[in-house]
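Below: protein 1.
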Amino acid sequence: MSDFYKTLQDTGSGIYREKMSRFLAFAEPVASADEARAVIKRYQNEYHDARHVCWAYMLGTARDEYLSSDNGEPSGTAGKPILGQINSFGLTNVVVVVVRYFGGIKLGTSGLIVAYREAARLAIESAAIIECHEQARCSFTFGYLQMNDIMTVVKRDGLKVIDQQFDNTCAMTVECDADAMPAVAARLQSAGASLNP
């Protein structure tokens, strides 16, 4: 499994027209299923007058968490083609929503598949695709007297501090590249940190 993954830097959008139907497509980066569902709900609310609001999302560096919806279109004609575009670009941590305004002319199964696929492609292509490094977090406690040693490791390794509490017993959560975390954790322990399970 790679420690790198591709996702979107920002939101992309596109419009595809076929036989009087309009397909408005939106692609956004997300970090969780809850966030993906919130994005989908936002578009459903914004385009409440549309005939269909179909979508798909993919999550995780292993790209093993995904879901799609045809939202009333014939089975497999909307969600799967949208998910197929996410796969063909090799993306994860992304949601793509395609809103259809029906134009009065039926497109048929193959026509729908093409339309949803093309709309999704346009939205993804209009956003910036970036490569990210998988991150890992480490939480630990340490005595106040170890503060200098701990902060030396944090600064030297360029760790991102997520949370910190300084008292008689101090607590900290840091983040760094996942493949570097075992060595970072060992250096923190050498400096006096007690790692949280």
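Below: protein 2.
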Amino acid sequence: MTSLDDPQILWQGKVFDFNVEERVLPNGRKVDMGVIRHPGSAAILPVLEDGSVVLIHQYRPVIGDFIWEIPSGTISPEEDPWECARRELREECGLIGKKFEKIGEILVAPWYSDERVHLFIATGITPCEQNLDEDEIITAHIFPFDRAIEMVEQGKIQDATTILGLQFADSVFLRNRIGFK
């Protein structure tokens, strides 16, 4: 068996590692588990002055198709989630946000990964130059907020982070502070 202090690294990647680690369960039983160790990420819902939102249409090679998402990215070493959110908004959308508010955190897949996504809303949006990574194919699109929610309900948005980001924004924050159109 492996130990948490001495995991067996099966694969080490640019963004995350895949390990086998020994865990002791609350009942005292020891098990080896496959674990993805991820530094975390930030996801941003850009909200324009009229209450509409910006979604990205991004090609995802793993599924071989384009999907609708909110901009997001992996937190770099020594980077704060807020700074990651600012960076990803600039890179993926070509937008600068004047104000960022954290609306929540989610665990993506806690049965095999420790990735934690920090969810933000960005307001005070102004354009800048988009700066995509070489493996990114992304276009940014503006939608009325209600249309984005309809896209979730119709199954046109399937990305879990995006769905939860929109739901957090709808139920927890924005409907009370910004009149969506």
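Residues 149 and 167 are 8 Å apart (CA to CA).
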